[in-house]
Amino acid sequence: MGEIIIENLNKTFPGRSSEKTKVISNLSLHVKQGQTVSLLGPSGCGKTTTLRSIAGLEIPDSGKISIGSKTVFDKGVWVPPHRRNIGMVFQSYALWPHLSVFDNVAYPLREQKVKKDDIKKRVNEVLDLVGIGHLHNRNPGQLSGGQQQRVALARSIVSEPDVILFDEPLSNLDAKLRKQMRIELSELQERVKFTSVYVTHDRIEALNISDYIAVMAGGCILQYGTPNDIYSNPEHPFVADFIGEYNLLTAAKEIRSNVVETSFGALQYGRVKDVKDPTTVFNYANFVIAIPPDVIEIGNFSKYEPNCFEGIIRHITFLGTSVEYIVQIGDQKVNVMTTRDQQHFNQGEHVLVKLPPEEIVLYRYSKAGITADAEAAVAL
Ligand code: ATP
Question: Closest ligand 1 atom, CA of 199?
Fold first, then answer.
């Protein structure tokens, strides 16, 4: 298995008018041997184009891509997909419907002219590895979605590729099966130690299966880090919102050190981050406040405590083990996540809301530039 190094990748597509649309912008990424790195971001941010560029299914405008010791794309260099020694797993499974499970998985080995006995041994091994050895005679049409995805997985690892590229492989499965396959995929990765890039727009999936996550927007990497880093220390308001489901509020100005003026009063905050946004897709206010929903308290405290404000319960969602309240404070709304055993409130009830200063991040936001984390992605 190898590593993947992407340096300063750029890709444009023809737009509606004569000008081209930039979909990947100076993207750099280093996936080390045996690591799983997720490309996580909203629809249209360039995840699949990046993955397809690694696979050789898309020709970038500029940049450099290496897989293992081989440069597969550079100025004057372009190695076709079948010579890149990669495995791919697609959302749609992409199995041959007329071939049995065994023959689907054997297909890449037959293409490589591997000896018949070796094919049999290797295919049976990987089918057992993904837990579907007993289904080897069936055709894909006789399998469930989860079983079909296991066949696709077996086919991607059977020829021991340098890297495996996953393009939203679990999106077609129901929630329960998706969770089960996520766990199985992590366990398989532990055993086989494949190097992989995993495209998803599902934050839970990325947090679960990745060694590192590259959060993308507008063809750029906004933040690169371990799941824990990204969840607990988002460097950009979009990352705070997308990964942590933080509340984003706006402030008018800084009043003094650690205090900003909001439409509902002066607010103390604990940390500040200066964000230079390399994308052209966001339009945040100059001062954005981020607060995780599970640290906000609702109750009967003194209004004179720091960061306590009057609010009205506007909506309640019962989620089983937790209860989510939408509380209006002045003209802004916050999501508050409480556990089932905490005090309950009613819709329309006037409450006091405490926003713990130490949990609040102020993003001083400005356009253009590149975050230190995105630059660090290639150095890791
Ligand atoms: P999704 O999660 O919806 O698959 P994505 O993050 O994978 O989104 P890409 O598929 O990489 O995004 O697409 C990035 C942008 O490039 C999108 O705006 C898309 O419309 C555009 N795009 C992709 N392929 C082409 C193409 N062949 N021609 C023109 N535009 C394209």
Answer: 7
